[in-house]
Specification:
Beta-Lactamase; Heat Shock Protein 90; five-stranded antiparallel sheet
Length: about 350
Amino acid sequence: MSSRRSASGSVRSRTPKREGLLVLDEQLRVKRANRFFYEMFLVSPAETEGRLIHQLGDGQWNIPNLIDQLKDVAAGNARLDGLEVDADFPAIGRKTMMVTTRVLDQEGPLNMVLLVISDMTKRKAAERAVQELSGRLLRLRDEEQRRIARELHDTTAQNLSALGMNLALVQRESERLGPEARAALSECVAIGDQCSREVRDVAALLHPPLLDEIGLASALRWYADSFSRRTGISVSVNVSPDLGRLGQDIETTLYRVAQECLTNIQRHSGSPTAEVRVERDEQEIRAELRDEGRGISSDALARHGVGIPGMRERVRQLGGRLDIRSDSHGTRVIVSLPLGGASAGGGGA
């Protein structure tokens, strides 16, 4: 009896304002609950106290994963520290809860377990809304980049080509011009050629046409070649010959991750080389990008100052994983994406 009063007193004195608390005996029978538990689940003390936890709410608390772990806690063999539980309750709907435990009395004849229940429903709903918004923003950005790239290629680049042809026509008659005019004309031709190359490069960087037309393998090789010419960093690309065509979202995600990683190598790594590998098996697509540079410091990773959040979000949107392993010998970025998002298509490039 004294143990029971001690446990009940602990509930009253330690009760957080927005957490439901249950005191359970070693058989997982409810001995006491706090006011917020009753308010959270719209139940009364008569419907709660003295009942086994799996009997509460007409069996809504009979959650195998939770019950099994609570048995281990009551036996003194384990401790719950942040178990996320989803359950449906007829009176209040679906709840997402964070459950933690501790043993209140180890010295008495019975172990009393304090079950702390935090209502995470609104927070999880907000997180899902943010994730959905983030996914839409990424898709909108990709679509806008694709549109701008198409406009640059189909309009601006074509106009610059026409301008170059007209200048070439004038240049063929340049002997009629004075020396200064001929020099200015030659300079205009050179500037026009440079602008044309730059516009095509920008359009391809925004969204390479090879990615849509031929697939990821060819787009990665094109980008690696272009990157090497611009930076002097040697990039090798090894793509599984059975990769085939993937879904547009997967191909875009892997391309953007490779693009971001190579940009980070140029800016931060100091590595003279980089490697891009893409493989697939029956379950997933795996991409690995590595360098031999100075690595990413833990402070840089903590600050998320090298485009890491964007890469993680793209991968997360497709249900994948992104791991970064870095030391003084270089950095490896490993991406795994489930094949559920891939659509088998034409042959590999």
